[in-house]
Amino acid sequence: MKRYCLALDLKDDPQLIAEYEYWHKAENGWPEIRRSILDAGIAAMEIYRTGNRLMMIMETNERYDEASKNASDAANPKVQEWEQLMWKFQQPLPWAKEGEKWVKMEQIFQL
Question: How many domains does the chain have?
Answer without folding.
Answer: 1
